[in-house]
Amino acid sequence: MDTIESQLAVRNKCEQMQKSIKELYEWEEQMKSANTAKVQPADNSEKKALPPVRSDVKAMSKFSEDVASLEKQDEAESESAKKKMMADAEILKERGNKQCKLGNYQEAIELYTQAIDTYGDNAAYYSNRALCYMNLDLFDECLADCSTSIEKDPKYVKAYYRRMQAYERLGESEKAAAECRQILQLSQDESELNATKRDLARIEKRLSDANSQKGASSPGKEKPPKGAKMDPMLALVKQEADKYKELGNKHLARKDFEKAERSYSKAISLFGDEAIYYTNRSLCYWNLKDYDKCLADCNKAIQLDENYFRPYYRRMQVRELRGAYQSAVEDCRKFIELTKDDKQKQTAEKDLQRLERLVKSEQPAKQAFVWSEIKKNAKLIKFIQKPPHLRSKKPLTRIPIKDVIPCPIAIDSRVLPPPSQRKSIPDAAIDKMFNNNTGERLVEPKEEINLEHLFPAHSNKLRNLFSPPTTPTEQRKPITAPAAPAAAVVSPPNKTTPPVPVATAVTKEATNANSKAKEGKSASTAQPAQSTQNKIEKNKINQGNQDSNEKRPKKVATSADAAQPSPMRPTTIPGAPKSSAQFYTTWSGLDEDLRYQYLKSLSGKPMNTLLGASLSNEMLSELLHILHKRFIPDRAEVSHVLKEIVQNDSIGILSLMMNKTDRDAVAALLKYMEANNSVTKEDLDRIRHKLIS
């Protein structure tokens, strides 16, 4: 046991010795630094140029001139540096003013601080920063900056005015009135004087009202119990509670609402019959978004003092938030009735108008609680992150993936086949629907339109609808012989077509016309029979024409019709185009044969200039198709056209958009040129590189 104690004693002494040695080393360093600091001015003084002997007048005058020039140079340098610092500080101040106007007070404070660090002799910088502190309810910092600004410039009126505003907001009306009187002595501006006089009148009125209400029950003042004076012991307790209230006011000015709430709670625990304690604590609960406690404190404050106006306004805010607009209107009216401050009345009147509009509009009540703002009984749930050794060892449940059997789709009571049995839609058809032409050719089947079911052969509706009108007195002209050949040309011979009705109709019409000319009967007796007979004959003629038309073939293709060219397309090879637009316009109106001849005729022309920037994927596909299908079988020269195509600026992008048919055509053309030796190897490699690789 003695051995352990001796070891401990030795260790303690060693630690003490180490500490003493360390202190000695530190003392030695301090002494060395002090000696060097004392010696340095002597060295600098020795280095300075000494004045010459006074008897040497020339040297003395020169020395004085040099000293004067050096002093002027130093002053100029210091003045230029000061101007530069002031200019930089002014730039920072202007930026801070912009942020202050926008309401970004924290950014403005940072900029004003930088301006003060750059040049700290300007009182306006401190005054402007004090304004930002006051807007953020940081009154201690505001008062400090105002005092510093006044020290820099005792006649700077704005610093006095902002200090007056800070005192007034803190409730120190006497100090605020003193600041107003100081402004009246210093200021010479009429607008500033008038504004200060109005503020001083308002503050003095508040002070006179407070003095007149001394001894009576008023908010924030000592209120003895009813019917008796306050007990001395109770007065001491009330004085201690006021200290906690003042501490809470300071925390409230710094916007530290949690500390302020604790201070007011201590004051209430000491003396719970003061309405202002509950009112101030309700403000803390309002900012902490604990609206239940805020409402309870407002009710308690009103219960203690019905003439205190502040809890009515706070309760109005809570009731408006919860949708009880009618109750909020009553609290607002009571606040207007009790308050004596003009600005507060104006603000409350605006709130009253807004609440009355909400009541009249009969809007549904809002949710009883604003869930995004309530903190009561709320708990933040975080994601669980376990280390690997604490995680569950059970495997995850596997869910089998199965194909969902689709319900049968029925359209017009017709069930569609499943997707596997349906025909696939061609890509070209999809591209056409979405106006995305990829160059693929789509052969669309021609649909035959049959309208026979609309107008059957046995129906007289269409025949009567398009038949020319006839009158009983109309003289029918005999049908001449030349009409027959035309009918024979239009309708081919058919064994089943009976030509009898037409001849019969013509014979009967001629017979009727001759009989009417020979007979001299009166019109009154001949017209009814003649009209009936004409109708019957007309129906027979139309029936015969319709039967002959129905028995004709749907399409008649004769050699004469085939020989006739389409009126919309040219029949001869067009001339050489003079521009790119003319080339594309001519190309779009040609068929495949004429395109082949047209492209062949342009073998010596600058194709790259004609194609230009309008060369598209579709045009490139058409050119390759003509070269592959027409030039190669005819053993024609294709190298010139391909050389001109690959010189186009857009060929790199267009080659990426070519489909399989175009690539096969390019491969065939390259093979054809290589077999004929019609192009050099460099040109062949260049064409292959541009169109394929």
Topology readout:
Layout: H1 2-47, H2 57-102, H3 105-118, H4 123-135, H5 139-152, H6 157-169, H7 173-186, H8 190-212, H9 232-253, H10 257-270, H11 275-287, H12 291-304, H13 310-321, H14 325-338, H15 342-360, E1 410-411, E2 414-415, H16 427-433, H17 461-466, H18 483-490, H19 500-518, H20 523-550, H21 559-563, H22 580-588, H23 592-601, H24 607-611, H25 617-631, H26 639-646, H27 651-656, H28 660-676, H29 681-691
Antiparallel strand pairs: 1-2
What's the level 1 CATH class of one domain? Mainly Alpha
CATH superfamily of one domain: Tetratricopeptide repeat domain
Quantity of strands, as a count: 2
Strand residue content: under 5%
**The CATH architecture of one domain:** Alpha Horseshoe
Radius of gyration: 55 Å
Fold-level CATH name of one domain: Serine Threonine Protein Phosphatase 5, Tetratricopeptide repeat
The largest sheet is: 2 strands, antiparallel
Number of helices: 29
Q: List low-pLDDT spans.
A: 42-47, 215-228, 363-374, 471-529, 548-567
Indicate the structural class. Answer: mainly alpha
Fraction of residues in H or I helices:
55-70%
Q: Please, what is the average pLDDT?
A: 74
Distance separating the two termini: 94 Å
